[in-house]
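Tutorial handout. Part one gives the primary structure; part two gives the three-dimensional structure as tokens.
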Amino acid sequence: MSKVLSLSEAAFIALHGMILVARSDKNYNVIRIAEDTSASKHHVAKIMQRLVKDDFLNSSRGPNGGFSLKKKPADISFLDIYESIEGKIEMAECPMNKLICSFEQCIFNNITNTITLQFKNYLADQTLDKYL
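Part two.
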């Protein structure tokens, strides 16, 4: 069955992983995130390192190592996390990226643009502190 909107596994792991780290009062490691999200620890490690590189997380090695937030939870939006993993959300008038339409009016009535804007605004409005 098709889905109009679906998140990649990477975006799912990043969003949920960041909430798990934000909820923890100590470092939260890859193994725990992998268990809590039912994902591969290798995939989790790759995603979390991307978030470290983009300055959302601190990372430390060792027996007590793991991840901690680099910013306040209120300063990290779902949009920040999503775009760190997936890239910037593009706004396009045409779902097929056509500059010239064969029809006088878009048969989709720009619904794809509207849905994209609503999704982007939703992600921007959600911050980690709302899920603590």
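Part three, for discussion. The beta strands are 57-60, 66-69. The two ends are 34 Å apart (CA to CA).
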